[in-house]
Amino acid sequence: MLTFEPIAYALELKEWGVVFVLLLAVAVAMLIWSRTGSTHMLMSRLWRITFGKADCPEASIRKILDAETAVCQFQVHTNIRARTVAHVEKISKWGLLYDVPLQWIGAAKEYFDLDLPGLNSRKNIPDPWVVKLSKLALWLAAPVAVGCTALTVYDKGIFVFKSTGRWFTLDDRRASPVAVGEGFALSHCTEDRKKLARISGFSDAEIAGLCNADGFERQSAVNAALFVQRGYFGLLLPFAAYISFDLWRFRRRATAAIAIRKRLADHAMEEARVCIDTSADRPRTVEAATRDATTEAP
């Protein structure tokens, strides 16, 4: 009888709950920091936990801290790195003037100049076809990242028969074809192999090769396959995940910048149309005003 067990079995449910809560707290803290670039909210929460919820007795300092908290809340909600309350108001007024949502401004990142505010003239906004191409690349890269994740934690070895080229998975209990078939438990090797061939998806020769293999050699092959699979896919996973994230980030920022540019162009066209209409109406308005003044004169 073994005197040891995997650590995953040793931890009780409540202990896993504590681990989950700690990981969730770390994830929330990282999300807040990534959006604000500041530890103000985290330090404020730590202060409240340590010293209670009493407000700062100094009114001027309390006002400064409240303003900083408000700016951080704005940053978390919109992902816009505004510096002060006045800066927030400046960006918000610009967004209202041109009917641009704050979420677009926050998503555009380097394509938007927060100090201006307005689109950054030093950054060339990608063409729409480039964004569409990045979307296609994302559709290709994301499944690769997901597949690498699944295969890294997969607990069965993936093999191929040399004679038939059939792919199958194998562990110490069961063999299953990758494509079609239910597979069979290795404990059924003593049963009628013709029947196994009908229901498992393997041929007679393939079943014979699996069942006649030495148990120790078979398990060694499974362990070696798992080692290679987890090594290869574990190395590929960070690259696929980074490429997927970078494509998603590029597409999100470029899409927001293109949307803002289109909104500004529509606003400029609307202003031009209003100016044309106003200039066309002006002679009639002046003429009417002159006529009315002449009529009312004594």
UniProtKB/TrEMBL annotation:
Protein name: Uncharacterized protein
InterPro entries (UniProt xref): DUF6216
Transmembrane domains' residue ranges: 16-33, 136-154, 224-245
Superkingdom assignment: Bacteria
Keyword terms of this UniProt record: Membrane, Transmembrane, Transmembrane helix
Organism: Pseudoduganella plicata
